[in-house]
Specification:
Length: 347
């Protein structure tokens, strides 16, 4: 069986071919001597040195055709935002359901080949094949955390989970299914209109190697979630083939733009609502006067200080330190009051 050449060996062969071509060509000096007798002949200028094959193509970026980069950074960020929201909702509902603090968060999201996902899978897991949009996906759940959830729901403390068990009973599987239904509900809520139908469990397996979801070299999205229940910690993973979300790609990118606009408007409204009920200090300034230190020291009760402003001058109103309004001093309900006459728009 013939061996496959490496890139370094290919480069070496190409450089050898280039050297043979250059050595077989006659030198420029011999050409000029043989044709020097022709009076009208002019020797061609010496050839310009060209970079070698390796030097010329050093700037080229390697591309693995067996593993194309189908999940862009923007798409990964959008999907991460969706599932971060899903974990927040799931954590809250599961905490209420179990009456105990439960924390769920996304720890890893990246593209892989389907074969890599299968090879890295923990065989002590339950592998749920689920419907996902118009295709299928895999959700794998650590058996230990599944049994811990079951014991918590049935009123146990979660300290007597048999970590050697690999196959839960049918009753335990039904209880876990109810928990996963809550997860799917929050996932659909996070995806919005893009996910029209609620994901549902098609079947469950305990050996990932018998599941042929897509071809081994097909690209999938792998997401790893960590779930903490008291002292118990476990993981569940998602395997979503690229073909499952390929036809909703434009909706995903558009949803991010719409969501950003909605968040901006929402935050603006929240700021306006918060500012509308905020308390601000407003003060009235009747006038100013300048006196010497000696006059200040000698001030007594009954002394009169003459202000610079005239009697008919408007009273200045300040919001904090900003001169915002001016108006006329008067009385309203036995209180001093100011009737606004001008608004300072420049401040």
């Amino acid at each position: 069986m013939s061996s496959i050449l490496s890139q370094e060996e290919i480069n070496a062969l190409l450089m050898g071919v280039m050297d043979e071509v250059s050595s077989s060509a006659p030198p420029a000096s011999s050409i000029s001597e043989s044709q020097g007798a022709n009076s009208g002949y002019q020797a061609a200028p010496p050839p310009v040195s060209r970079p070698s094959y390796v030097e010329e193509f050093q700037h080229i970026t390697k591309y693995d055709f067996r593993r194309p980069n189908k999940f862009s950074k923007d798409l990964l960020r959008i999907l991460k935002n969706f599932h971060d929201n899903m974990t927040r909702l799931f954590s809250a509902s599961l905490s209420v359901y179990l009456r105990q603090d439960v924390k769920v968060h996304l720890t890893y999201i990246e593209q892989h080949t389907y074969n890599e996902y299968i090879e890295d899978s923990n065989e002590k897991s339950l592998f749920y094949i689920i419907s996902f949009i118009d295709d299928q996906a895999i959700l794998s759940l650590d058996v230990n955390i599944a049994l811990l959830l079951v014991e918590k729901i049935l009123g146990g403390e979660g300290k007597n989970v048999n970590i050697e068990r690999k196959d839960p009973t049918d009753i335990e599987l039904n209880i876990v299914r109810n928990i996963l239904d809550k997860l799917f509900h929050h996932q659909k809520e996070s995806w919005g209109e893009i996910m029209k139908d609620l994901p549902r469990i098609i079947t469950v397996e305990n050996n990932p190697r018998i599941i042929h979801l897509v071809q081994p070299n097909d690209i999938i999205l792998k997401m790893v979630f960590e779930i903490s229940i008291g002292d118990g910690v476990g993981i569940f993973t998602y395997c979503i083939p690229y073909i499952a979300i390929e036809h909703v790609m434009n909706q995903l990118l558009k949803s991010q733009f719409v969501r950003m606009q909605h968040q901006f408007v929402k935050k603006t409204d929240e700021m306006q609502n918060n500012l509308s009920v905020a308390i601000v200090d407003i003060s009235a300034e009747l006038g100013k006067a300048s006196i010497t230190v000696e006059e200040l020291v000698n001030l007594r009760v009954g002394d009169v200080i003459k202000l610079e402003e005239k009697k008919q001058s408007d009273v200045l109103l300040k919001v904090g330190e900003i001169k915002k309004f001016s108006g006329e001093l008067g009385i309203s309900d036995n209180h001093y009051a100011i009737k606004i006459k001008n608004i300072n728009e420049t401040e």
